[in-house]
Amino acid sequence: MKSSILFQNQPAISLFDEQNQIVISPKHGARILQWKRDGREIITWPEKADWSRILKVRGGNPILFPFIARHFVAGKNELWRDKTGTVHPMPQHGFARDAIFSVLNDGAPNSLRMRLLDSIDTRAYYPFAFRFDVVVTLLPGSRLEVRFETTNSDKSPLPYYAGHHFYLALPHGDRADWTLELPCEAWGRQAPDGAIVHENPTQDTLSLADYALIDRFQIAPKNPMITLLNTAANRRLVFDLGQSPVPWYAVTTWTESATSDFYCIEPWLGLPNAIHHGEGLRHLAPGQIEIATCILDASGW
Hints:
Elements: E1 2-7, E2 10-16, E3 20-25, E4 31-37, E5 40-43, E6 72-73, E7 76-77, E8 79-81, E9 87-89, E10 102-104, E11 111-117, H1 120-123, E12 130-139, E13 143-152, E14 158-160, E15 166-168, E16 178-181, E17 184-190, E18 196-199, E19 205-207, E20 216-221, E21 225-230, E22 235-240, E23 250-254, E24 263-268, H2 274-277, E25 282-284, E26 289-297
Antiparallel strand pairs: 1-2, 2-3, 3-4, 4-5, 6-7, 8-9, 10-11, 11-12, 12-13, 13-26, 14-25, 15-24, 16-19, 16-21, 17-18, 17-20, 20-23, 21-22, 22-26, 23-24
């Protein structure tokens, strides 16, 4: 079911069934704000969020589009260079995460479709015509699907690489009990100049208590089912990336500090600064549409 609600005095939309409640804000970047199953948070949102500084709020699922994370030109952050050599500004993680999305009424009672179109504002950063839809669907069995539909409305190829930034409700004192099953081809980090530094993976099962996991890219996952598991509490969350028509290039792991009561698991279509180094950079031909789906299975939460 679906309804309009007030959430922390902000207009929002809720998708819900007997066990689940998902709160979404189209006016704040099509962001999932919170997901609760049987009253327990899965995607977390702070009780006293500063809505006037939404980019600083540690919570929800910020949508990263058209590019992910940091971009550098001549050592300066938040810049990118196009194929003609022209340099453009680009906010960290792109401009979609605080943009106002329109809501499309497609009649689906368990789904919400939100749309961002190019405008004078977006062309200041990204001189292309596009349509970017985010579709959030509550599926049976406590499963949540988030779908990206990217359309090139331009006359030239559209470069992009979108991503998720799921803030999961994990108390910092419990990190040692949580593992992430994530075999992959390589590990990577971003160097200060924007380049990607690669490592050979040494293990498939990762501990959230391992400081080395913070800000690391797990590149080319070998298994489309990524499991976050707490055996002590008999809880799990499964990321199903295998249903996506477009493959997810990497899964990034991050938290802010040793005392942060959240941990972020972030499926990405590319890597930071890909417009310059090419790792995960996608090009849509004029008129082409690409779809990327991510399903979170919380039946074991």
